[in-house]
């Protein structure tokens, strides 16, 4: 199967790419390519093992027409794109965007024991993408720092390992830098690491930085250096060994905090209270702090941005939300995706109860809400029915009790709804039959009684229905036979 890699901050990627496109790729050379550069491309081709014949078009005299090669007005090569990705982005349920690679199909890759120095011949190169190929655990070559015109450099998921060369700091025109890894590549190559981040301080034009899965435990200056970059908008430091000691107090200027629109520190080693530096980021659109060990309260200062679209705090040992869930939803009208799953939220206070003072924006914007695997108790709030934009609602594996509220019939856009493994009782409401966009409904592992309502047969979009492990009785309604799209039906362990 193809593996999906995260490339969050889609709008920024597009912006950076668009600027580069406008700069040079709109130029269709009428002169043909430079002969010396054509020879260098052939040398580069010879350095690769190309089982898929991806470079089979690299023949003939005009290298500007070769696949993956673009030239400027003077015939010089300005773009070299050897990525295994087709460039398309896939958006998952929570709204995150992914770039598709296929690490299990080596026929799509070119491989080499190292990057050939012939790249130095392309002195006008602005764009270089070697992502998704296999450089067999070799080092990122220091000579890349001599390609002074580079604005876009993507070496992600290409099997590089060892220390990130400080020479990359010479690329002072660079706007986009992706050195990220994914699990499969990391385990086979050993991964990248950095002992300090001073080399990054010279990248004053950098807007997009993704260095996920590189080991930055010893680079204690990483956040201080990023704080000095005047153009930086997008930071992805997933799985980099970041700790609280990487956030020295008083070292962040307000301009930096007000500019960043994407930040991911997921799967690191952050613990204790959320660093104060993260609580004043007023331009944020996406924030991911999942898979850490905060063991603390979610402060309302974390959602100070009126532009926040996605917030993921999953699996980070949070135990309380300042003001409750309602306070977050009332404060950020732009929020479309909120993931609070796999934490230690307890009781019903974590949700908030003062719905009367809620803003009208609460009713329409949120599309994804994940509260699964906490210890939230009490009744399912009636105000959940006012989240009319919801498409995905997961509140399974909690301690909700009482009946399923009738207000949920208002969630007409809902596609997936999981209430399983709670302590819900009473009957399955007939009104669930009004959720005519529903594709997956899971009510298993509760104490629901009565009969299976005929109205479920009207939800023609249903693909999966699980009502097992309850106390339901009576006959299976004939109306379920009308569910022509149904693929899975679970009704075992009832009366």
Automatic annotation (TrEMBL):
InterPro entries: Leu-rich_rpt, Leu-rich_rpt_typical-subtyp, LRR_dom_sf, LRR_N_plant-typ, RLP23-like. GO terms for cellular component: plasma membrane. Residues 1-26 form the signal peptide. It is a single-pass type I membrane protein. It holds the Pfam family LRRNT_2. It is found in: Cell membrane. Keywords: Cell membrane, Glycoprotein, Leucine-rich repeat, Membrane, Receptor, Repeat, Signal, Transmembrane, Transmembrane helix. Its main location: membrane. Residues 36-71 form the Leucine-rich repeat-containing N-terminal plant-type domain. The keyword Signal applies. Belongs to the RLP family. This is Leucine-rich repeat domain containing protein. It comes from Parasponia andersonii (Sponia andersonii).
């Amino acid at each position: 199967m193809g593996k999906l890699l995260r490339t969050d901050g889609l709008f920024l990627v597009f912006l950076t790419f668009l600027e580069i496109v406008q700069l040079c790729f709109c130029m269709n050379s009428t002169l043909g390519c430079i002969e010396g550069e054509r020879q260098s491309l052939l040398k580069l081709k010879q350095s690769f093992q190309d089982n898929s014949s991806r470079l089979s078009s690299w023949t003939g005299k005009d290298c500007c027409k070769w696949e993956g090669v673009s030239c400027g007005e003077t015939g010089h090569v300005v773009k070299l794109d050897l990525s295994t990705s087709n460039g398309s982005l896939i958006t998952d349920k929570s709204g995150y965007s992914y770039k598709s690679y296929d690490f299990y199909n080596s026929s799509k890759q070119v491989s080499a024991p190292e990057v050939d120095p012939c790249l130095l011949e392309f002195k006008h190169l602005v764009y270089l993408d070697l992502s998704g190929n296999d450089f067999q655990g070799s080092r990122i070559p220091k000579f890349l720092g001599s390609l002074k015109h580079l604005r876009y450099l993507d070496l992600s998921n290409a099997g590089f390992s060892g220390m990130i060369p400080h020479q990359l700091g010479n690329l002072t025109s660079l706007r986009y830098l992706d050195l990220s890894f994914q699990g499969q590549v990391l385990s086979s190559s050993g991964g990248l690491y950095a002992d300090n981040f001073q080399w990054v301080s010279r990248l004053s034009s950098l807007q997009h930085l993704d260095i996920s899965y590189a080991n930055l435990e010893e680079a204690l200056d990483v956040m201080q250096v990023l704080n000095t970059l005047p153009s930086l908008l997008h930071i992805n430091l997933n799985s980099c060994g970041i700790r609280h000691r990487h956030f020295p107090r008083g070292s962040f200027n307000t301009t930096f905090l007000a500019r960043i629109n994407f930040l991911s520190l997921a799967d690191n080693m952050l613990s204790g209270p959320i660093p104060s530096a993260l609580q004043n980021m007023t331009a944020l659109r996406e924030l991911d702090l999942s898979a850490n060990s905060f063991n603390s309260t979610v402060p309302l200062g974390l959602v100070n941005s009126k532009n926040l679209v996605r917030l993921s705090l999953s699996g980070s040992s949070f135990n309380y939300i300042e003001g409750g869930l309602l306070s977050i939803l009332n404060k950020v009208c732009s929020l479309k995706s909120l993931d609070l799953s796999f934490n230690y939220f307890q009781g019903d206070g974590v949700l908030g109860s003062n719905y009367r003072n809620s803003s009208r924006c609460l009713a329409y914007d949120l599309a994804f809400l994940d509260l699964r695997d906490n210890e939230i108790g009490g009744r399912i709030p009636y105000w959940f029915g006012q989240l009319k934009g919801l498409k995905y609602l997961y509140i399974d594996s909690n301690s909700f009790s009482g009946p399923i509220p009738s207000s949920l019939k208002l969630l007409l856009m809902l596609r997936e709804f999981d209430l399983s493994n709670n302590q819900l009782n009473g009957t399955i409401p007939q009104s669930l039959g009004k959720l005519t966009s529903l594709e997956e409904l899971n009510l298993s592992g509760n104490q629901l009684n009565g009969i299976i309502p005929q109205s479920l047969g009207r939800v023609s979009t249903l693909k999966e229905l699980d009502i097992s492990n309850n106390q339901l009785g009576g006959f299976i309604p004939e109306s379920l036979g009308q569910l022509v799209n149904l693929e899975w039906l679970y009704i075992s362990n009832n009366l």
